[in-house]
Prior knowledge:
By secondary structure, the chain is an alpha+beta fold. Helices cover 24% and strands 29% of the residues.
Amino acid sequence: MNPNYDVIIIGLGAMGSATAYHLARRGIKVLGIDRYSVPNNMGSSSGDIRAIRKSYYEHPDYVPLLERAYHNWRELESETGTEILQLTGGLYIGPLNSELVSGSLKSAIEHNLRYELLTNRDLSGRYPQFKLPADYVALYEEEAGIVRPQRAISAFAELAKRRGANLSQNETVLEWKSEPSGIIVKTDKHEYSSDRIIFCGGPWTTHLVQDLGVPLVVSRQVTGWVQPSQPELFSSDIFPTWAMDHPEGEIYYGFPILSDCAGMKVANHTRGAIIDADRVDRNVYASDEETFLPVLRDSLPGGLGSVIEINVCMYTNSPDSHFIFDDYPGFDNVTLACGFSGHGFKFASAIGEALADFSTSGCTPLPMEFLQLSRFHLN
Ligand SMILES: Cc1cc2nc3c(=O)[nH]c(=O)nc-3n(C[C@H](O)[C@H](O)[C@H](O)COP(=O)(O)OP(=O)(O)OC[C@H]3O[C@@H](n4cnc5c(N)ncnc54)[C@H](O)[C@@H]3O)c2cc1C
């Protein structure tokens, strides 16, 4: 058997790599294991960019966690000298009573965030790129923008290793068990033991933890990169990161053109086909374009152009689309961070800290209670 660890982390995507970094900083003897490379394009943290925003339409309770995440992303940047967080401004568009606009407004007001509410006329004056129904308004926030998954995961992993973490790539965890002496983890290469274990397996979570008491549903999601017919309208100095409650009832989102990326990223946030993470179809079909092109056709005509690339990724959806951060039921030395439901990346820098807190002291000062499993059994 390999040497004993204080903590073993299964999965080194966004959440696992951030946790390894925070644990190693505290001098904890940590082993992180990933079945692929770190970073990789197989899990949910694939690709180059993710949106980050504070006026969180999903629920105001996320805002304090976001404040911590922003702080931690900036700290990671200053430790590495790498740009990870780029503010572009964020625009959340739809009818005033839509989930997107009313939810963003609620969070902004409740947490005293800086925002502007733009009327339909303000919106078409400031962002003529959009062609919108007359009842559409928008909430604009200056502090929204883009985070960089591959750079962030590389930075977390590199700093964790520098501080003594053992990170093993291309090694698959096959099973684990809890014994009076601790946790035993068996992989396709070795057997390890540790005092604690943390599951950050993303869409593969339920392959190793079956008894969550609630289902996690994995869905196939696609994102598109498009070369706009009028690229000059979409550079990041004049065009923000955006999300839109589309008249058809789906939420679309997109980004400006960035200096180091070819084209402009656009996607549909609606849940795609339900799949098993091991059997996701990574081939791209003509129908995949139709998940994101409608919003360009209808609402951003100058953005329509040739599709450069389509990527397949996975959401791990919890029953209420809110994250799950808790002990595994029945164990006090097994922690889970999963069910990020397509909006978790921006939080990784804070989730990693909270998981490290949990592992070292059994609790965290960060406000995580609303993400506990008990919420599913209260009704
Ligand atoms: C298309 C798309 C767009 C998104 N857009 C945004 C956005 O704009 N903003 C935002 O905040 N979030 C966004 N998200 C969500 C965000 O990317 C995810 O919530 C986040 O990346 C999840 O990270 P994770 O660490 O939980 O999972 P993953 O990154 O999937 O990491 C899990 C890791 O576990 C490893 N693993 C699994 N099983 C085993 C095993 N048995 N043994 C060893 N290793 C194992 C995997 O190899 C993988 O590397 C988006 C997601 C997708 C798919």
